[in-house]
Structures are given as structure tokens and as C-alpha cells.
Amino acid sequence: GGDLMVRVGPDAYEKALARPHARRMDFTGRPMKGLVYVAPAGIASADDLRAWVERGLCFSQSLPAK
Fold first, then answer.
1. By the 8 A CB rule, do 8 and 19 touch?
2. 28, 24, 50, 55: which is closest to 38 by C-alpha?
């Protein structure tokens, strides 16, 4: 309901969790390391949203091509 899910990867996970309004993604009942939820307050401004999208893009661009 309104949270943004961002895949930041295991190396950036703890740093992402330290950001305001971020929390562990645990929709399965277990936290999934490398994935975070960001509450709507954390993406309220265009700059905040852009920063989270860039974090996700940075990780996805580091993955090997399929």
C-alpha cells in the first residue's frame, strides 16, 4: 500500500536501511537482504524518489547481463 520496494543489493543494504523511512522488506515473513521498503514519506519529493530509483538502478546495472 504505497511503499516503494527497492533492490539495493547486499553491499548497500545496511546503508539503505539507515536512510529515513526505509525498512526491511519482509512480505514473506522473513527479511530479504538486499531489498528494502521505503514509506511514502521517504519518496514524497521528486529528489527523494529520484535518489531511491538511482540506488536501485545502480544495483541492477551491476548485475551480469542475461
1. no
2. 24
Q: Is the dihedral of CA 52, 28, 18, 1 positive or negative?
A: positive
pLDDT confidence of residue 28: 80
d(CA 27, CA 35): 11
pLDDT (0 to 100) of residue 30: 86
The C-alpha cell that represents 37 in the structure block: 521498503
**Distance between CA atoms of 31 and 12, rounded to whole angstroms?**
15
**Which of the four pLDDT bands, split at 50, 70 and 90, describes residue 32?**
confident
